[in-house]
Amino acid sequence: MKSAVETLNPTRVRLTVEVPFEELKPSLDAAYKKINQQVTVKGFRQGKIPARVIDQRFGRGAVLEEAVNDALPKFYTEAVNEGELNVLGQPEVDITELKDGELLAFTAEVDIRPALEIPDYSGIEVEVDAVEVSDEDIDKSVEQLRERFATTAPVERAAQDGDVLTLNLEAKVDGEVLEDGVAEGVTYTVGSGELLDGIDEAVTGVAAGGEATFTSELKGGSAEGKEAEVKVEVTEVKSRELPELDDDFAQLASEFDTLEELRADSRKRLEQMKKYDQATQAQEKVLDELLKLVEVPMPEKLLADEIETRKHNLVNHQLGQMGLDLAKYLEIQGKSEEEFDAETKEQAEKGIKTQFILDELVNKEKLNVSQEELTEHLMRRAQSSGMSPDQFAQAVVEGGQVPMLVGEVARGKALAVVVEAATVKDSNGEVIDLDDEDETAETVVAEAEGTEVEAADEKPEA
Fold first, then answer.
1. What are the backbone dihedrals phi and psi of residue 159, each rounded to the nearest 5 degrees, phi first?
2. pLDDT 10s digits, 259-294
3. Residue 21 and residue 167: Cα distance in Å, rounded?
4. Residue 12 · residue 109 · CB < 8 Å
5. Gap between the Cα atoms of 52 and 105, Å rounded
6. Domain annotation for the chain: domains and CATH numbers
7. Could you tell me which residues come within 8 angstroms of residue 54 by beta carbon, excluding any fewer than 6 positions away?
8. pTM listed for this prediction
9. In angstroms, rounded to a whole number, what is the distance separating the alpha carbons of residues 333 and 322?
């Protein structure tokens, strides 16, 4: 077999391949065997039909087509390896010559990863928020905990802000009660804004047994988006009582004996959270600066496929689970379709660039992924997906996604190397040490990439 590589642009090549006909013999034999198992000819047992009879009855062309389709992936792969190409996606194959007994020639156009030059990145400098926990932050944290231990008790008075009510609702559109517009025994906290616009004003001042009517735009159901007349009946009013902020509360809500110890623990936890956020912010900003340093030619077909994948995932998975279509989503977001398309393209380009650049750094820095690192990453991914580690691992293996996880870890390590070389200062001008924050890099990389961009390994067909 002879092959040659023609560079069409920095991200696409054309392979020209010539195969002596004798190299097709294994595929021709396989084609005759396959056809033998699929057809019957009077006078011959199935599987024992001579090749010349198959040629006469079904045509030599059918045999050649079967043989070529069987052989193409092998010859294509050999040509790719011979040219030392890092291909992306499926090739576009065109058979240029097929002479029975003499020659098979074909071309294959395919996208490749562009060659990248990674410049010195040690000069990158970014600023992040300082880790500062105020007394107000601690007060808010303790108050949120206090809210969780609130109790309710029925009261014989009109409803007011913060009360927990039991309601019956009836919605009418154009004077007709909607089939799905009646609900009984609904629990609602006045002021939460969780039901319908206007309900807080309607129920405030209404005691148990009273009712009120208001108009509101329906947020779901058969008449979603329409103005409805809603009748609300208050069947019970409960006041919320918060526990006193004292040592007894600390013992009730935590493992601590005093409120002072509880507040100290809240400060510690808030500092840890802000340090994590600070590390994530640093990773994101360093990545953005790195992307500015490297010129990345963009494979057009890969970009188009990535954009389509992102749209598909949004519409069929995320929005589908929320009961929304793209038009409603854009309306809620206040975006035009053109703005959405532009943002999706920008995100797809960033994802592809991120992977290309960090993969190049993985090779340049000779970074490897240990079994322990892969396992730890798998555990984190399982936790974020809501699956058990065993379930997630099984799904990854069955889906052939182990290389994807290895790539995420490796690229996270590459980004951590860049962050370590960069200068990261907080808003107070203090230099921040982020050497121990490698795992945040994996999260930042995964978010930047969005949908995984993989070098496909599909078999081409004529």
1. -65, 145
2. 999 999 999 999 999 999 999 999 999 999 999 999
3. 82
4. yes
5. 25
6. 2-111 (3.30.70.1050), 151-241 (3.10.50.40), 252-450 (1.10.3120.10)
7. 32, 35, 36, 39, 63
8. 0.76
9. 14
